[in-house]
Design goal:
Helix content: 25-40%
Number of strands: 2
Largest sheet: 2 strands, antiparallel
Shape: globular
Distance between the termini: 16 Å
Radius of gyration: 14 Å
Order of helices and strands: EEH
Structural class: alpha+beta
Amino acid sequence: MAVKQPTGLRYLDVWSTREDWETFRDQRVAPVVSEVLAAAGIPHDHSVVSFEAIDVVDTWVGHPA
């Protein structure tokens, strides 16, 4: 899920382990984000990206449209 906030976008995702997320982030997300930003002339500034662990109480999958 991505939500718009006054400071920018906040992306929320749930993974089984932090290691699974970090592997996906490093191998899939970061290269694509860097490419898209570079095409727009925007540097990928990793210093403005933050991560926060949360306690998940419940999750569910909606029906596809």
